[in-house]
Amino acid sequence: MVRRIRKRAGKFAFSVIMFSVALAGCGGGSRDGGMQQQAPQLPVMKIESSSTVVAKQYSALLEGVVTVEVRPQVDGTLQEIAVDEGAFVKSGQLLFGIDDRVYREELKSAVAAQSVAKAALEVAGIEVERLRPLVKNKVVSQIQLKQAQANHRSAKASLEQAEAAVQRARINLDYTRIKAPVDGYIGDIPFRVGSLVSENQPEQLTTLTDVHEMQAYFSMSEIDFVRFKQQFPGSSIEEKLTAVPPVTLLLADGSRYPSEGTLDAVSGQFDRSTASVMLRATFPNADGMLRSGNTGKVIIANRYDNVVQVPQASTADLQDRIFVFKVSEDNSVTRTPITVVGKSNSNYIVSGGLEDGDMIVVSGFSRLPDGTVIDPQPSEEEGRPDQKKQHR
Hints:
Layout: H1 2-34, E1 41-46, E2 50-70, E3 76-81, E4 88-89, E5 94-98, H2 101-136, H3 142-175, E6 177-179, E7 184-186, E8 196-197, E9 206-221, H4 222-231, H5 237-243, E10 248-251, E11 262-266, E12 276-284, E13 295-311, E14 316-318, E15 321-327, E16 333-344, E17 347-352, E18 359-361, E19 375-378, H6 385-388
Parallel strand pairs: 1-19
Antiparallel strand pairs: 1-18, 2-9, 2-13, 3-5, 3-8, 4-7, 5-6, 7-9, 9-12, 10-13, 11-12, 13-17, 14-15, 15-16, 15-18, 16-17
């Protein structure tokens, strides 16, 4: 009896095992199908060309259109300071006075010497006129007349020399009154009344700056300068400068200067130590808001037409080249080099390698080999305003 029960139980267990195996065999196909490799789902964006304006800032130093070092041209004691530091003066206005007593006496002496020379010339002329008839009547020899004529010429030269000395003395006397050569603002005045000044001293009395226009000097890298020349039309630098739109100035506090300026000069050579070139922009300054020595930033706006923008995060760098992963019609990806001409916020401005309607992978491509088929998914980048709108 027991043997029969054990035999039946064994058959039942064997049947259960075989049934389980059979079920596993039936369901195995579906599980293997689920293990097949699926195409990776990656975000993509569609490329659209547009025009954009990119503003680039350059640190600048401002100088007046004319800066004059005011120096003494005669020696003496500083007797008068007629202006204050920072004052605005007009051309011809008195700035400094040097003790002129010595120079007045020199002028008097020169005038007296001129009078003596003039009298000597008159005497020599009288002598020549006296001898002419005597020589004609053969009372005196021709040699005496020639000698008198030579004395007359010498007296005339002495008079001219005396007149030059008078003029020089007048000029020196005028130099004791130092006047403004141009309109402008007075700089620092390191001297005081009673200071001894000299025409050979290394330090100037002050500086005078004409600031009705201000010139902003700034440096541009070699790469930026190459792009600058490509950006604007013209066969020469001068022609390209005329095509540059008005530039803007940011002051040290970040505020925008109300008047626009003109880019009007480029240095003749690059600075080898910095691989940069100096440029100059001129701004009107009728109200005197700007002064020499101010700092700021010159903003140059570059317009790019028929270009596309791609997020920098959607690119890869390899051996000084920039690539994107372009999606083909069959959803396979290809690493494609692009030509970058500038940056706008977090985007690259691309002029070559991509066209309207192209699709690129936005992220997740770090180990994506060429030819991989993906499952494209909409990207947040396509909804961003700066990707679709046309900048003006």
